[in-house]
Amino acid sequence: MATNSSSLSVSLLLSLLLILLAILSSGSLTISGHAFSIQEATVAELQLAFKQNRLTSRQLVEFYLGEIRRLNPVLRGVIEVNPDALHLADKADQERKAKAPSSLLGLHGIPVLVKDNIATKDKMNTTAGSFALLGSIVPRNAFVVTKLIKAGAIILGKASLSEWVNFRGDAPSGWCARSGQGKNPYVLSADPCGSSSGSAISVAANMAAVTLGTETDGSILCPSNYNSVVGIKPTVGLTSRDGVIPLTPKQDTVGPMCRTVADAVYVLDAIVGFDRNDKATGEASKYIPHGGYKQFLKPYGLKRKRLGIVRNPFVVKGSEVTKVFEHHIQTIRQQGAVVADNLKLANIDDILNSSASGELVAMLAEFKLSLNAYLKGLVASPVRSLADVIDFNNKFSKLEKTKEYGQFLFEAAQATEGIGSDVKEALSNLAKLSRNGLEKLMRENKLDAVVTPGYEFAVVLAIGGYPGISVPAGYDSKGVPFGICFGGLRGTEPKLIEIAYGFEQATKIRKPPSFKP
């Protein structure tokens, strides 16, 4: 007992020391006599500092690498950093100095962390947080990474995640074998949520300018909610999944996680587009507006929008979150929106029950097929199938310290035998629930979006491949953040961006992390 108590005290002291260092750090640089604060700086502010010679990409990357060294031992939001990051920063600075056309790109010289299930063809690993894929070699960059690089971004490193996108077993949110337990930077004991926990933790704590996450069912919206950042979960197919370790092609999507709506939109503009290696992008690319999404960053974007509130079961009477939510609804009305309250979503109990809806049945079968295809496509890998991964985990569970978390979802997926009649029935039921649920609700009430507190509406959006945006909305009495979620039908990102940006500008809720123990 004495040994455990001593270890706990040392761990607590280390955490408190790092917290103190974080609080004392100003994040300011003095360049050519001009002070510039990198902490909380937006993409637009960073680009202006570049233009005015108040900041270089090397200085920016050095700052974030320093913050990762300082904060990551406690927060565990980053798995590894790109050893070429400073070289890429120097290259960006040279391009800017030479006034190269590439230096005019929207994300030029901006460091970005990508979730560790998104492939990068560089010196870093792509492992979904698991030792099973350590040392594997991907055939190419994920399409979204290629798009980021073409937009001038610097790939700073890999963000941690809930291992295997929270689909292995019963491990806690934010935990993976390679980096350990991710911590919420606002309240270290609070849930960071998953699976894109590391992306949210890192951008909230200023360990990166912007980040990328992925979502199958809540994995962008939930971490954004709990870590006080903006998360955009795009329409499925709007962003390519090529090179992303899959869960299910029906629901997987890649999206930005940033400190502001504008930053998230800049990243979204960079990563959307048609990809011949992902057929879902062929249908979804028709939704991309001419001129991109930046044009919808309108300060009064709530004006004349019609928003619906589905209270049951998303609004819990008497809770702290609900009290703040009611206040926000008044603000939304004051900004010129029409609010349709107390709407009913058909079959909501079935939608929220993954077994009753068929979501879990479909997910298990599609996971096995899509993961096997991904693993077989690797240039080199210690594992080539889901069965290999299960065997690896059984063999090395003591090394990974993961035995207590199990892998019952993996085993259930391995037991499936392709897309049979049960899976087809499940997929048909999901489509029916979406048609009779959100689609009917929005059509009959002529809604531009549905608004709910928290992140739980993510399930409704997930099964239909619909988009959603989470925006910081407040902090409870313990200091734990919570968000507000705006969701809509496929391709309605322009309206959702107007609404989310209008809300953000009217409220300006977000504040930097407090690192409370």
Q: What count of structural domains?
A: 2
CATH level-two architecture of the largest domain: Alpha-Beta Complex
- CATH superfamily assignment of the largest domain? Amidase signature (AS) domain
Rg over CA atoms, rounded to whole Å, is 22 Å
CATH-defined topology of the largest domain: Amidase signature (AS) enzymes
Sheet of most strands: 11 strands, mixed
At the first level of CATH, what is the class of the largest domain? Answer: Alpha Beta
Mean pLDDT: 94
The largest beta-sheet arranges its strands as: 3-5-4-8-10-9-14-15-13-11-12
Cα separation of the termini: 22 Å
What is the overall number of helices? 20
What are the segments in which pLDDT stays under 50 over at least 5 consecutive residues?
1-10
Structural class: alpha/beta
The shape, in one word, is globular
DSSP strand (E) fraction? 5-15%
- Which percent range fits the helix content? 40-55%
Task: Count all strands and give the number.
Answer: 15
Keywords: Signal
InterPro entries: Amidase_dom, AS_sf
Organism: Xanthoceras sorbifolium
Pfam families: Amidase
